[in-house]
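[User]
Protein folding is very new to me. Any chance you could explain this protein sequence and its structure tokens? I have pasted everything here:
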Amino acid sequence: MEDEEMEKKVQQYLHRKGFRLTELALQEERNRLSTTSLSDVSLSRSDNDPARYYDGYNKLRTWAYNSLDQYKHELLRVLYPVFIHCFMDLVAEGHTQEARSFFHTFREDHELMHSRDLQKLEGILSPLHLEEMDLARSLRENKFRIKLCEYSYELLLQYLQKTQALVMLGIINERIIFEVSAGQPSLISDDADVVALVGTSKDLAKQINQKEVHWGLLEDSVEERMEKALSDSDKTEAESKDADAEDNNKKKSSEGGKQGGPLKKLKKDKVVGATGKNNKSEASMVSAAPRVKPELTLPATPVEVEQSILEDLRNRAQLNNLALPSVSFYTFLNTHNGLNCSSISNDGSLVVGGFSDSSVKVWDMAKIGQPAKTSSSQGENGSSQGEHLSSTSEGKRPYTLFQGHSGPVYSAAFSPFGDFLLSSSSDSTIRLWSTKLNANLVCYKGHNYPVWDVQFSPVGHYFASASHDRTARIWSMDKIQPLRIMAGHLADVDCVQWHVNCNYIATGSSDKTVRLWDVQTGECIRMFIGHRSMVLSLAMSPDGRYMASGDEDGTIMMWDLSTGRCVSPLAGHNSCVWSLAFSCEGALLASGSADCTVKLWDVASSTKALKMDDTKAGSTNRLRLLKALPTKSTPVYNLRFSRRNLLFATGALSLGS
């Protein structure tokens, strides 16, 4: 009644003021709405004929494909969100048969870019499925953000007004946010993040990415102190050697040894000079990074640990695009598809596997070659006999068995010094184990659904978890409740990774985004949009400036944390990228995939080129592949560089692949 009275008053006002055309338009609109059977006033719901979706989309598609080449690639971006919502609206209205026909008719247009989503949506057969499927719910609850230039946007509006395509107009108004920019249309190569599913807020990603990120390293960190001590000791050694060499030369010259002495000295100087250059180049990336204060209270480092770090730094191999790392690959045999995850301790001495039967098994590499029965299980077959021997000699297992979970184990991670182990499971718990006592210490309960990933912080004590409940949580070993809950992803959080300064964590999700969170406040301070499928792996560069992410399609992207943009997108693998790892000096990136290969990428040269081109906004530089290392038939589960720059890898032999 109130609406009718309001309309009458508006009509009287228009009549009194002489706005005849407006009065007629309002009357026509009232007549049109009164004839419709539906109460919904949305433009796209004016008729219940399923053919209107097919006709409307087909006309929009034909117009977009026939538009000017300069603007065509921008206008084609609108088709995918419209196609998806036409299909889901048909299903929601109960026109299942017409929805299937519509889906299969136009599916081919989007197969190249969105094949994973289409495979999932193909299973929607009833309105109930729309409510049950996470992807469909996410698509209906959130909006697509599409980047267009001003002229493309004007062309689209003109088309919709001329053709009176009310159904298409309704879907576009309701489901799409346009980010209109002045000037020329964007490049076709920039298509990575031009169509993205975002929250209902138009400028959410833009607002988030304007926040400041302090990406540097920790002040007075253990490794920094050790590196200083190492460089000081190297200087004193070099000075003493130079003094000794000069004394020897004087003696030899006085004794008449003119031939051998100077020649050997010259060769030695060349060698020392070369290694010195390497040391400088290695330190330059990390030492040039700014220093920041820790936001968390950090644990003290034991003296024996500091000594082991010093020893590792002293023996660290210098890697670059000419000097590639040695790789030690541990292959699990006879797992019968039961191995879900694996991880390696920092020094490579321990390997853990998480299994579908809810067990966690740890192998000590030092002991694995000692018994006669396991003498063949070294190197590439690091833990080959584990499953086989457990049945034959129960008392003499080559591994330590940890039992406590009541569901499949999806993630396991060692503490930085190897004395603790974390595991997460579908039973929604995280368990802390002692590798010294071989016992379960704590069971952490906080998530409500399976926990997909868990990672220790670089200093230990704190750890982060990622779950099906769409949250990531930060925990402390001495507290059974989480310290922070990071909520904001639109789907499962599949992986989590700490920043090197412990002030931030990164999360990768099935909503195809990567987010960076402030540990102290729990706020999202970066949203990285560009992946076309779920993000499965993350890695932080040692200087803290860059982050690499890998997805289900095999794409690897490297991001600049300070600007929030992608600096080097590449189609790295033919299948899921399950693990990423930066070398200790940040010169190389290793990626491990379900396509049974480990690949090494040149990061140093691309970041140098990037720093030179910093003034050019939006410049990207693809990583150069240095080497691909294929296994016979072993998908790569996990990668880790030791402090000495030895690359460790694990995987389970898959005879069916």
User: Anything to note?
Assistant: Residues 36-46, 252-283, 372-394, 615-619 have pLDDT under 50 and may be disordered. The longest strand covers residues 143-149. The longest helix spans residues 222-255. Residues 510 and 534 are 4 Å apart (CA to CA).
